[in-house]
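Field reference: "sequence" (input) and "structure" (output). Example, FAD dependent oxidoreductase:
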Amino acid sequence: MTPPATSATNGPDPFAPDTAANPHARLTFDLDVDLCVIGAGLAGLSVALEAAQQGLSVAVLEARRVGWGASGATLGSVMPGYGVPIGDLIERIGVAHTGELWTLSREGMAIVRARATEETMPGIALTTGALEVSNVDLGDRLIDRLQTLGVDFGTAVEGWQIERVRDMLRTNRYFHGIHFPDAFQLDGRRYVRGLEAMARRAGVRIFEDTPALGIDFSGIRKRVATPNARLRASDIVLAGNVDLGAPSPRLTATLLPMWRAAVLTEPLGERLADAIAFAGSIADTDGVDHYRIVGGDRLLWTGPETTFEVAPKRLEGLIRRRIAALYPQLGAVAIAQSWSGAIGQTVHGMPQIGELRRGLWVASGFGRQGLATTAIAGRLIAQGIVHGDQRWRLFDPFELVWAGGRIGRVVGQGVSIVERRAAMTAGLLARYRERAAVRSRLREERLQAANSRVRSAGGQRRADAPPRDRAEPGAQDARRGEPGPIE
């Protein structure tokens, strides 16, 4: 959902309402097209745009408004990889297969970067660089990860030592970091609107307030029922996330709904620059916090995930406490806006991309995946339909898995809480060990200094004493109580 407007004292508000967004008409007449996309979020618009650019006639059905759900609340992060740690991917599908998927994610980044220019999407506010920081001392694990990312998968990546991380982020909560210089971030809501405009220019017809009530798969031409009309298409793409509903209950049941609250602070002035000197996005390895500077002196910060919808206003206090814990020098931080959107999280953590049955495609499960994955999904599906490209089969190992219904949501919430607390506890222990190591080092240094002073003082005393071999001839005998030589 699009956050409400607020005033900014330093430049344009990055979340001001887009007055250029015009509502689309409902579908009120029967229509025949080559491709019907159900869902006008990032994935649906990406598929529609790619397909139209390759010559297909395309219609998009949206039950509400373009980008009204999670796509309208995205933070706009564009990074290589997926929502699953690279080590877990390698363990599941092997190095070679993981490498091919990694290459696709980088292709997705290139697609987004080519689209997201100030000329095509004014106000996109693109910034470069992403920093993944650790809550604990990674040690040799940092070297192993850099080897995998940089050497094995050819990703531009830099390892940052603790001193450099803390020079950029003035907090003792972080240790090592991995910098992705080619990653970037943008105004996610403007990107959604930019995609919409590009799709319309390419000939895509978008119908809002037009839910798909059901799909008839019989025959070569599939029929989609809507409240006021029917649509026929050779191919259908399900891109409706957790709100897809009637067209495919089976798909909806494979997604665990997750709401993640986000806030935008009031302008913080110069004190923000004194706390954070990194212009890109910052995320910790445990997924506790994700934030970046927007509008010059404001923080865009995401908080905890919940499997049940909670009013974001209720989570503002929690996020304020997190900001204060990391950056106490910021003082009391005022929140200008808060909002949340529901994402669809799969059981295996990877997106669902491919053909479910002949002519029925899916582009779903993009929770935690980033914009690059929605972009490459659009290209893979469009090329699969038009040219028979089979690269989408790289996602075959990540099949549809039931998310467990309401019980799954309860379990998921419990796991999220446990993981978050475990990450915070691990960070607390790491900082305790660091302080203990510092105290031990200081004690050792003081002991060495004291020993040095003792040695120096003893050496000085010896230097001041008269040499024993220069004493008077009879002095040594006198000290021993013996007579001197008789003359």
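DSSP finds twelve helices and 17 strands in the chain.
The first strand starts at residue 31 and ends at 38.
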